[in-house]
Structure formats: structure tokens, C-alpha cells
Write a structure and sequence with these properties.
The complex is a heterodimer of chains A (147) and B (125). By secondary structure, chain A is α+β, with helices and mostly antiparallel strands. Chain A has 4 helices and 7 strands, in the order H-E-E-H-E-H-E-E-E-E-H. In chain A, the strands form 2 sheets. Chain A has a 5-stranded mixed β-sheet with strand order 3-2-1-7-4. The chains are: A alpha+beta (147), B mainly alpha (125).
Chain lengths: 147, 125
């Protein structure tokens, strides 16, 4: 398995259970084998289930190949305050690539990351190959704001 | 028996984390508690010669995979989940704009400390 395949499995499995949330998948701390799956706008009643699903996905698909995915689950309150553009929308468009330059996403006045790709509800209707192509450069470094 | 080379640092970091949590500094607590746990686990695998003492690249994914080397839903599966959950809070504390909530750490502290102690004083890891 390569990292692109791992990303696809992570996204597919997550979307099977929670297609309604906006998500981001980035590499953590410069390690392309270690992904952070951010999930935005998660209601209290779903918070534990979303987190637990990602932790299980990490065990299921990360084991044996050196990959890992860590949940970064954002409550509805946190999303409203810090990441308002990631609130679940009534109608979401197709998989939206948010750019390829170094400054792509501005979140509440802060640059969140570089080369971020945002997934929307339409992900489920996209063939896996589209994911593979779209995410070929989606291994990103988080901002090193603190160590 | 070979002593875990990170035992002192791990104990110190854990104590710092507990003290930070007591005074409501959940971000600092998440950082210290995670690294206390990370050091205990890394030290264990250094002794087992599965990690190098100076290894520092890709180490967080690596220890998750060393904790749970098979995808059987057993004790190690749960250890990996708990350490990864704590890592989530450390990443949030260090990089994200929002803060860690104390209650999330309080819910983890007993189980994670038990895992940490098992790697500091291994029986059969």
C-alpha cells in the first residue's frame, strides 16, 4: 500500500459513516506517512463516535505499513468560532481543490495550511481514481506555530 | 533488566502535565502528558532495538505502529487508540487555534498513565 491508497481508504471509510461533515487531510509535522484528519462542525452527540471511528480507521489501515492517521475533531462551537467556512453547508459542490500555491486557505483570518484540499459531500459520488489524482500532492506540512 | 532510558524524563513530564492540568493549563498539560507517554514508549522500543535513541523523524506514526503491530482488536489496539487520542490533543495544543479542554484530558489520564507505566515497567510488550 502506498500513501495515496491509504488516504483513499481513510476517506472512503470515514465517508461511509459520516458523509455530512467537511474534512481536511494533511500530513502532520512534515511526516508524509502520518495524516491528520480534521473534521469540522461535529455536534456533541456525534463527537465521540467521529473520533472513535478515526481511531479505529488508524488501527485498521495503518497497522503493518507504517502509516497513521490522527483525528482532529472540531466541535460545532469551535468550528463556528475559528473555522466558520468549514461549517456544514446546505448544498456542497464538487470536490473543491483550494489551490496549489503556498497560501491557499484563510481561516478566520489565519492561514491554516498550504496546499489544502477540501472535501465536500460530493466526495461519495466521485470515483476513487479522481481521489487518487486530486490528492497526489495532498501531503502537506502543518504550520509549525509551536513545538 | 534494562532500565527504560527515558524513565526519569517521562516521570517528570507526566508530573508536570498533571500539575498543569490541576491549574487549568490544559494545552501545556496535553503537551507534557503526550511526551511523557511518548518517551516511555520510545524508551521501551529503544531497549528492544526497534528505535534509535537519536531517532526523531516520523517517530509519532512509528510508535503507533510499534504499539500495535497487527490489526487484531486486542489490548494493543486499544493502547494505540488511547495514545493516538492523546496525540490529537497534543497536536491541538501545539498547532491549532482552539484550546484543549481539561475534561478531555481528565477522561484519558488514568488509562494513558497505565499504558505509560506498562512501557516503563514492561512485562510482555
Amino acid at each position: 500500500m502506498n500513501i495515496e491508497h491509504f488516504k483513499g481508504l481513510v476517506i472512503d471509510r470515514f465517508r461511509e459513516h459520516f458523509p455530512e461533515y467537511k474534512i481536511q487531510l494533511n500530513s502532520l509535522e512534515g511526516d508524509v506517512r502520518h495524516l491528520g484528519l480534521s473534521v469540522f462542525g461535529v455536534e456533541k452527540h456525534n463527537f465521540s463516535d467521529v473520533q472513535d471511528l478515526i481511531l479505529d480507521i488508524d488501527c485498521e489501515f495503518g497497522v503493518g505499513n507504517g502509516f497513521a492517521v490522527t483525528p482532529l475533531v472540531k466541535s460545532l462551537e469551535v468550528t463556528q468560532k475559528y473555522y466558520p467556512e468549514f461549517l456544514p453547508a446546505q448544498s456542497l459542490s464538487v470536490l473543491e481543490k483550494l489551490g496549489e500555491s503556498e497560501s491557499d486557505t484563510i481561516t478566520a483570518g489565519l492561514q491554516r495550511s498550504s496546499n489544502i484540499y477540501q472535501l465536500t459531500n460530493e466526495w461519495n459520488r466521485l470515483p476513487s481514481q479522481s481521489f487518487e489524482n486530486s490528492f497526489s500532492r495532498a501531503a502537506n506540512e502543518e504550520l509549525a506555530l509551536a513545538a | 533488566m534494562i532500565i527504560n532510558p527515558y524513565k526519569e524524563k517521562s516521570d517528570e513530564a507526566w508530573e508536570d502535565g498533571v500539575n498543569f492540568l490541576k491549574i487549568g493549563r490544559a494545552n501545556a498539560a496535553a503537551n507534557r502528558m503526550y511526551y511523557a507517554t511518548f518517551q516511555a514508549i520510545k524508551g521501551h522500543f529503544v531497549v528492544k532495538e526497534k528505535m534509535a535513541i537519536d531517532e526523531n523523524i516520523g517517530v509519532h506514526a512509528k510508535i503507533l505502529n510499534l504499539i500495535c503491530p497487527t490489526n487484531e482488536k486486542n489490548k494493543k489496539w486499544n493502547y494505540r487508540k488511547k495514545v493516538n487520542e492523546l496525540l490529537q490533543h497534543r497536536i491541538t495544543a501545539d498547532y491549532e487555534v482552539e484550546s484543549v479542554e481539561s475534561v478531555t484530558l481528565q477522561n484519558l489520564i488514568v488509562e494513558v498513565n497505565a499504558i505509560r507505566n506498562e512501557y516503563l515497567n514492561p512485562q510482555d510488550n
